[in-house]
Structure formats: C-alpha cells, structure tokens
Amino acid sequence: MSLDKQGVAMPLVEAMLKYKNEDVYPMHTPGHKGGRGIEALLHQEMGASVRMDVSLMSELDDIHEPESYIKEAQELAARTYGSDACFWCVNGTSQAIHAMLMTALNPGEKLLLPRNAHRSVAGGLILGGIEAVYLQPEYSEGFGLMLQVAPAAIEAALAADSSIKAVLLTSPNYYGVAADVQAIAEICHTHGAVLLVDEAHGPHLGFSEALLPSALQGGADACAQSTHKILGAMTQCSMLQVQGARLDLQRAADVMSVLTTTSPNYLLMASLDAARAQVQAYGRQMAEQAVAAAEKLRALCRAHAGLKVLEEADCGGLRLDSTKVTVNFANWGYTGVEVGEALRRARVAVELVDAQNVLFLVTYADVTSDYDEALARIDAVLSELERHKREPQKAATVGAVPVTSSAMKLRDVFYASKQAVSLDAAVGCVCGEQVSFYPPGIPVLLPGEVITREIVEYCKAMKALGLPVSGPADSELKSIRVVSE
Q1: Taking the model in full, what pTM does it have?
Q2: What is the dihedral of CA 107, 108, 113, 116, to 10 degrees?
C-alpha cells in the first residue's frame, strides 16, 4: 500500500530518510555506526534499514519532549483515531497499560478489573500501588472460553463501592469478543469513574462499518492499542490514546516519560508513523480486505462437518471481530494444542491454542497468493484430522478458571519474602508470583491470591495439554513461590 500519491505525511519517516541521505558520518551512538559494525549475516538480512538505526538527536526530535517530527506524528495519530492525545510506546502495550493505569489512579485507589485481564495489568497495579476489585467475566461452555463482563455487573460493582475510581476492560479480547463499551462507559461516567480499555487487539477498529466501532468511539477515556499486532508497525510498537476531560494529559505525558527508555529505537517509532499513515489513508480498505480474507478461512472450516467456528451468535449478544477466526475441535476429539502442532508441521503457525480451540489471526496483509497456499495447507490438515476423528469430548478438557480470593495486595506481595514449595504443598498458601498459560496470558493466579486445590488441579490439567507456563520462576510449574510465613 504505497502512500506516494495519497498526500499523507509521515513526519518522522521523512526526517530519518533525509538524515540517512545526507550521508552524515556518525560520531555518536549506536556503536555499529550506521551498520558498518553489524555482524555480516545480520547486516545482509536487515539490508539498508541498519542505516536508519539512529541515535537520539535534536534533528530527529525527542519522544520525551517532542517538539517537531515526533510531536507532529503523534498529533496525526491522535487525529486519525479521534483522541485528544496519542503517546507512542516502544515497549509494547504493556507500557501503554501501565501508563494508562498510573495516569488514571493514585496509589491506594481502586480499579474495577475483570479477571480475564492480561498479565501485564498486574505490573501496572504494582507500579502504581493500585488496589484491584475483581469481577468474573461470563463464560462460554460451548467453546470453553471467557467472554466479557456484563454492563449490569459493572453497574452493581460501582453501586456497591463508590470508592472505585476506574474500570478496565479488555475489549476485544484475544478471541475477538468485544464488551458493550458504550453501555459500560455511560455507567462508569454516571458513577464518576473513568473507563480504560486494553484494546491491544483492536487498533484496526473504527475505520469501517465492516468491523466494530473502536473503544474511543464507544466513549472510553483511554485505550492501549497494539499497533504491531494487527496493523503494520514492528513488534513491540503500540499507542496510548487519551480523550476527554476526565484524565490529565500532562500527567499522561509525565508517566509515559517515566516508563519510556531514554534510548528509544527510531526504526520502531518510524514504523508507528508509517502504520498510522497506512490506516489513515486506507483504513476502510484494510478492514474490508481483512474481513474478506477471514471469511475465506471461515468458509473453509465450516465445510468440514462437526467443526464449530465462533460466530457472533455464540457470544451471548456481544459483538465479534470477525477477523479473529476461532475453531473448536471438541466434536472431533482433538485438543487445540494437538491441532496447532499438526498445522505447524504443515508450515502454518497459529495465534493461539487452548484446550478446545485454535485461533487464527487474519489481517489486511492476508491478500497474497501465499495466503491462498496457506489456506490449502490448512484444508489438507483438517481433511486428514477429519479422516481420523476420535470420540467427541463430552465435557471440556479444562473448564473455566476456578474463582480465587485475594489475601494480600499485589504491591505488598512484590516486596514480601517468598519461598518455593511444590505445587501440591502450596494449597492454602498465599501465591507469591503470577501464573499464566501463554497465550492468552490471562493469569490463573495472581500474587496475593490463596492457592486452592481446584487451582492446583487446573494448573496440572493445563500443563498436561502442553501449554507453556508464563510468570513463575519454575517454568515447569513443579514448584511455585509463596509468601513466607
């Protein structure tokens, strides 16, 4: 998607190209000096891009005090998304989430948090000294996955505790299921709370009626977006969008400066500038391409008898981002892990596997002959699995995450003494570390929660499926750290 004739500016990209073309000799960092010192094989693979790996300098602006190219590019991003301010994140959406929380809440204040939040949220709670009040999202028995929290549950929680200052939603979630952001925003604002949205999987939303509206369009006060997950930015590039008068924009800038490296990678920032320009010029076209590409995959999967494809009708009245294609293999007797491994052997790597499902992530980039070839390989794998179907799973291999209770605040646990004990011996103890199965990276246990027998058995079942563990010091989860007596 060329922007040459679209009249869409890319201020930072253009400034970096100008600097590169002036052929200035770099008597400054980085030490590889414009690629001259980079290892030969890496230089060969990276090509001319190494010459644009430049250092922090006044000619290219400073992300901590933007006055020229970065300032202009962030303002263009804010206008593109309809926010009052956009802040670039070169440490992923985790940084954006941490900044969002620390902008909205003071130490000791309360955040209403659905229990399906990404593990990065816990880091923001620790950094900000924020207290979480948890809500359980609704659960789909048919697909064995978490959906969203209902507006009525938000209303009840805010009515019960007037000291809650903010609500954080994950919308859309990993599977593309979106919360009723507009209804929840109205409820939050009625109760004097701000609405924050982890929109990591939604930077492409709001540009076409073919997809869902964005969190900002729904009335959110701030959202964190993974530009790299769905759009054209490089990995770990994200944006924090803030709108309205309920949050202090200067405080957001101050927090972002605290959380941002003083040596930001300009190639990463340039990719944010370019990704914004792409979606500004072609957002509608990109959305429609992604929807059409996803529908080809959905049709292919539907053609195999017994497979269930997650559709909006399966989401309990909630909206679904159709570019996330979730396929359930319970009727064929396979786990998502097994199917994911079979697809990988056929040179197709999927976004997520769980006990029952495989999640395919489709974007605007899936319009090439390579994509059609990948679809053919997927079809061949499904046909082979269909020929060797097993007895259907009568019940979910692993059900919903057991409900936990908190005994200590996250920040207190972070600084507390801990010891490692065997997983079975941990029952009744206070957990000292996060335990997630990744993806989707939703914590099964958070620091400060009481470890129950149900949680231990759940973890064993997830490990038996072959899902990788994220968070604990012992990645095999034979032991777990607990708060010392």
Answers
A1: 0.94
A2: 70
